[in-house]
Design brief:
33% of the residues lie in helices and 9% in strands. The chain is of the alpha+beta class. Helix 1 (4-13) packs across helix 2.
Length: 67
Amino acid sequence: MVTKQELKQALLDLGVSKGMTLEVHSSLSSFGNLEGGAMTLIDTLKELVTEEGSIFMPAQWPMKRNV
């Protein structure tokens, strides 16, 4: 289980900081079993970047095809 504190430290080690503009494009499963799931990731990014920065997260879903 990856805790919020472990995630936060890993993001800090990668250089994520206050005021940054980030584009986050990842599969949640790539984080392993993240305590709290997607909301933990989003909350942690918001805490680190603060309101002085921006976070962009593309959303994609399978298109329904009429065949």
